[in-house]
Amino acid sequence: MTTSTPSFEALELISKRFSKSNILHALGGSGLLLALGIIKEVRDWDITTEASLENVMEALEGIESKLIPNNELFKSHYLIKVTHNNTEIDIIGHFSIKKSDGDHHAVPVKVFGYWNNIPLADPKEWLLAYKLMGRYEKAGKLESYLQSLPK
Fold it and tell me: Based on the number of CB atoms within 10 Å of its own CB, is 27 exposed (0-12), middle (13-18) or buried (19 or more)?
């Protein structure tokens, strides 16, 4: 199955809204891998933040969005699915993953750098997140990327 990269304009719109509202945020997930040149295509964008749900919803005013309940794997404070320009963007508040021992691991929002003015999440944090989610192929690609960086 071929996937195409979702609208960058939609990602940029959300990022600009968050920046204007002083909401710390970062692009994670496969969008991070795309920005780092590790993969060529993504299905959607994932933005993490530690802002309150109220502040995020205020910044998203006028943009189609839906609050989604957590599932068994995730223990984040909230997940908002935004649809804009035929593109899905997941906004994850206080991203947290359930570990095998029942505890959870919080993935902090740390800005690693920027890609086309979009703040990028720390690849080390996402490496651990992918391992905890059982997404070992993506974890392996991120690990190889991190090992290729100058020490």
Answer: buried
- Domain residue ranges in the chain: 8-146
| Beta-strand pair 45-49/87-93 | parallel
pLDDT tens-digit profile of 52-65? Answer: 999 999 999 999 99
Task: Give tens-digit pLDDT for 71-114.
Answer: 776 888 999 999 998 899 999 999 999 887 878 889 999 999 99
Count Cβ atoms below 10 Å from residue 29 Cβ, excluding itself.
23
CATH topology of domain 8-146: Beta Polymerase; domain 2 (3.30.460)
| 14: nearest Cα among 105, 72, 87 | 87
Q: Which structure tokens are listed for 59?
A: 């910044």
- Written as one string, the DSSP assignment of 38-64 is S-S--SSEEEEE-S-HHHHHHHTTTS-
Beta pairing partners, 113: 120
What's the pTM value of the predicted model, to 2 decimals? 0.91
